[in-house]
Amino acid sequence: MRRSGAKVINVVGARPNFMKISPIIRAMEKVPGMGWLLVHTGQHYDVEMSEAFFQELAIPRPDINLEVGSGSHAYQTGQIMMAFEDVCLREKPDLVLVVGDVNSTIACSLVASKLHIPVAHVEAGLRSFDRRMPEEINRMVTDMLSTYLFTTCEEANENLLREGVAPEKIFLVGDVMIDTLYAHLETIRSMDTWRRMGLKKGKYAVLTLHRPSNVDDRDIFGEIIGALTTISHEIPIVFPIHPRTRETARRFGYEGCFKFVKMSNSSTNRSDPGERIDGPGIWCCEPLGYLGFQNLVVHSGFVMTDSGGIQEETTVLNIPCLTLRDTTERPVTITQGSNLLLGHDGGRIVQEATKILRGEGKRGQAPPLWDGKSSQRIVRILAKEFGLK
Ligand code: UD1
Q1: What angle, rounded to 10 degrees, do the helices at 15-29 and 176-190 form?
Q2: How far is CA 144 from its chain centroid?
Q3: Contacts of 177 (CB under 8 A, 6+ apart)
Q4: pLDDT digits (tens, 9 = 90+) for 324-358
Q5: Does residue 116 carry a catalytic annotation?
Q6: Where does ligand 1 bind, in terms of residues with CB under 6 Å?
Q7: Which of 27, 372, 379 is nearest to 180 (CA)?
Q8: What CA–CA distance (Å, rounded) separates 189 from 181?
Q9: Atom of ligand 1 nearest to the CA of 14
Q10: This prediction's pTM
Q11: Which residue among 44, 210, 242, 344 is the active-site one?
């Protein structure tokens, strides 16, 4: 692919993609001759799930929005593929860059590779070894199709090598999500989202929950809520609730287990103080913007989550994290960081939360190369491939 000047299509689709693409675009902008387009598949479309992140992270407006919206996996993936094929045929990019493990990631990788356009996968090689997770299929297929595999940790390299990926395609660069965290950390620390919600520093927990394996099963979701309710007698739990979780809570009749608080959505909206959390309970609010959410995390006592990225962010912030899943594709957050894997066993969740409340929470350190410079490494490698300075 050696030539002067290059055209890259950067793809985003769902919430966890936005904080990953932001520093990559910033790094690309600094390289003369590195041309790029931003394509948003429209997998996530609500203001809280998408637009808020573009504003807060100053991501340029997408050049193209495929507006595919929600649907079954096959429908969503198929819609993205059909629309993205037109884009590739029209734009003739030299490279398609995808991030993470969402349906948009696999759909665009499939399209590009069938058109013989090289694919770069950022966050390659992560494996939960659980194929019931849609993300695991997305990761495996995307990695098999990619020409450039940018990894966050040694374990990811080992996974790829074991699967037969040629070593010269694998680049250990660190974690771009952490680039974004470090770029905004000063702002995040200085904000007062926690205070405006009526919380006390270190005296509340943050919760996120949206994995189908946790919230689409009535019994499992019920068991988790039972444990959270017990914990919430000791410490208020703030729960920015994902749309799919809200929907299943309504369907299963669990809404009564939560208290709802109206939060001004983003840090940009400071004139609206929102409502205050008052007493124990699991307090739900709308999904928060990036900065407001991280502000809650940074000043919390601990975090409970089934997200992938939050396991990494809490590791870097050294905040104890209880991961409510049976497996993680990010084991480095356990071996080196502040993460513990608990599944959905209610007793265990309460037990570990109680330890944290006693001051015995797990602490750790950030893995190597999670230093805020991963995007620069990626772009430097790509620029060299394109023959750019
Ligand atoms: C997707 C990703 C998941 C990621 C998560 C972060 C896949 C397979 N899953 O899961 O890896 O952790 O994003 O949020 O790609 N919805 C809205 N508004 C939106 C988007 C979704 O209301 O803006 C609702 C719809 O009812 C939709 C449901 O959420 O059907 C699920 O959305 P979808 O994108 O299919 O998966 P997520 O659960 O968000």
Answers
A1: 100
A2: 21
A3: 16, 19, 20, 309, 312, 313
A4: 999 999 999 999 999 999 999 999 999 999 999 99
A5: no
A6: 14-16, 43-46, 49, 70, 101-103, 134-135, 210, 242-244, 247
A7: 372
A8: 11
A9: 13
A10: 0.96
A11: 210
